[in-house]
Structure formats: structure tokens, C-alpha cells
Amino acid sequence: MTQFKTILVTGGAGYIGSHCVVDLLEAGYDVVAIDNFANAVEDEEGSPALQRAEEITGKPITFYKADLLDKPQINDIFDKHNVDCVIHFAALKAVGESMQQPLLYYQNNLLGMLNLLEIMRSHNCYQMVFSSSCTVYGEPEHLPITETHPTGSITNVYGRTKYFIEEMLKDLSAADDKWNIISLRYFNPVGAHPSGLIGEDPTKEFTNLMPFMAQVALGKKPVLTVFGSDYNTPDGTGIRDYIHVMDLARGHVAALSLLSSSHIKLRVYNLGTGRGVSVKELVSVFERVTKTKIPLKYEARRLGDITAMWADATLAKNELGWTTRHSVEEMCTDFWRWQTMNPNGYPKKIKKSVIVINGKS
């Protein structure tokens, strides 16, 4: 098989997508990125995250504002570019929101993937890295979690969409030998690029722990709400496997390397550190690293959350040659650098307001 040249990145303007684009460019790939800005910040020129990715790497990115639910639009992009492989990040991803708006999640995540696969097939592009999630494992039967752990007993709608897509990919690769797919099950991505130029800038109230924590540290929010203090864990708070977003980005470059050199049909890998960290532990590391104080407020557990989850990433080490490099301290340090350099996140698109006086604007 030949080395890939052009990689299409869906959801490329988002948090994980933009960090992955930096690693792809630095690894010598040409990047075509698309995003509909459902989870990403838009400014007057398009994506501030991708503009900064160009600044970091000194390399150009071809970007389209596009939506996977608009099939003709995506088809046109494939017509214009000779895409060797797709990295598919684009998805709605908030657990809480998914429980409140299940149809939105099924429509966006499942139909978007269906459209993408059909367009890829019609353009003879059969190589994909899929952004999956450890949520497919549900409440773990044992820890740490290997890739052979049962999937499907999911506790939330977001996780179910990832599980259904994984099942779709299984059926597709069994039916048609041309497909060559790696599904990466992420654990909990945090941190930011060490330059401080790109990072996580949530567009919705349903946000991840670290951006919320940083807002409290900056004095923009009064307290950090911790959901659940009565879990069966040493300190009562939920335990997760936090992974630096740049380690995650390297995992995608490693996956591309395997796809370009081998026909593996479909393979699944966990991307995590192999270490569980409780919410309280993460808060205390963040406080120590940033020299700030984070007041906590405890509320009831959220629907769909689980007790504890961390990875066994031995398979990724053995087959992808990938291991994590960054500590929890570095995750906190890099995120704090991003947040203090960009206290309001990325520059936002200015909504033009029209003032009407006496019926005339």
C-alpha cells in the first residue's frame, strides 16, 4: 500500500480535530478540514483554531464550512480533492445534552456517518480513522478496560451513537473487503497545545471538567460543580482516564501509518494512559500547578455517568507503537497556559445588530 498524502478531517475546527490537524501537518500530510461549527468557534475568516494551526506549523490547511447532513456539499468536496483517508471527528458529544435531545444526536451522528461512508465509497476512498469513545463499554465489568471488554450496555445516548457506528463499521468491513478502518476509543481528552495558541473553547453549557475548572480559577465562575460525591471510589468522586490531547493527536498519526502499510479491515484501539484519576485528584493537581483555589459544590450524579473507567492501552502500544508521554501535571499546565493567554477563548464572530429608529434602520 502507498503512503497517504491528503487527509480529510471532519470536525477539524473542534478541540480534538484542530490539535490532530497540527500533528498531521507536522507529519507531512496535506489536510482538507471541514466543520459546521456545531461544536467549534467561528470568526469572520472561518475557524480561528485552524488559522492558529497554520501559524503553529507554517503550513496551509484547506477548509470548508460544511455539514455531513448536506450530502451534495460533501460530495463536491470529494470531487475537488483526491482524498486518501478520512479522520472522522465530527459528532455532537455532550453526554448530558444527548440524554435531553436523543433525536438530535441520532440524526447528526448516525446520518452524518452514513452520508460520509456512502460518499467515500462512491469516490473509491476506503480508508478511515474513526473517533470512537470509551463510553461504548458502559459501566465496566472489570478494570482496566481492554478492547475485548463487552460493549453495548451503554449508559447514555452519546455513547450509543458511537456504539451503533462501531457496529455499522463491523458490518461494512465484513460485507466489503475494500474497507480499511481503525476505530480509536478515546478516554478523557484534556490539556492544550503547548504553544497556548489552540485549546478547548466550549460552545455549549454542557461542558467538560477542565474548561469549567479553569473558568472558576480565572474568577469567571464562582464554584466548580461536581456531579456525584457518593460513588464507590476512594474519595467518592468519579474516576476517569485523562489523556493529553497532543498524545491523542499522535495516536491518529500512528493509526494512519498502520492503515497505509497494512490492510487490516477493521481494528479497534483504546487511547488512554492506563491510570485512573478522580475528579477531586484532578482538581487538586490543577490547584497546585496553577496556584489557584477551586471551590467545589457537590450535586447529585448526572444521568448516564459511570463510576470509574480507565484503559489498558497495551494493544495500541504493541500494534501502533503508541504510548502517552504527558503527565496529569502537564495536562493542567498546558490547559492553564491556553486559558490565561486566551481568557475568553477564541475571537468570536461578531453578530451585527441593526438599530431601528422611527421605522428606519
TrEMBL record:
Gene3D superfamilies: NAD(P)-binding Rossmann-like Domain, UDP-galactose 4-epimerase, domain 1. Its EC number is 5.1.3.2. Pathway: Carbohydrate metabolism; galactose metabolism. The keyword NAD applies. SUPFAM superfamilies: NAD(P)-binding Rossmann-fold domains (SSF51735). One of its GO terms (biological process) is galactose catabolic process via UDP-galactose, Leloir pathway. GO terms for molecular function: UDP-glucose 4-epimerase activity; UDP-N-acetylglucosamine 4-epimerase activity. One of its GO terms (cellular component) is cytosol. It is an enzyme of class 5 (isomerase). Residues 8-334 form the NAD(P)-binding domain. It catalyses: UDP-N-acetyl-alpha-D-glucosamine = UDP-N-acetyl-alpha-D-galactosamine; UDP-alpha-D-glucose = UDP-alpha-D-galactose. It comes from the Eukaryota. The keyword Secreted does not apply. Its cofactor is NAD(+). Keywords: Carbohydrate metabolism, Galactose metabolism, Isomerase, NAD. Catalyzes two distinct but analogous reactions: the reversible epimerization of UDP-glucose to UDP-galactose and the reversible epimerization of UDP-N-acetylglucosamine to UDP-N-acetylgalactosamine. The reaction with UDP-Gal plays a critical role in the Leloir pathway of galactose catabolism in which galactose is converted to the glycolytic intermediate glucose 6-phosphate. It contributes to the catabolism of dietary galactose and enables the endogenous biosynthesis of both UDP-Gal and UDP-GalNAc when exogenous sources are limited. Belongs to the NAD(P)-dependent epimerase/dehydratase family. Homodimer. This is UDP-glucose 4-epimerase. It comes from Leptidea sinapis.
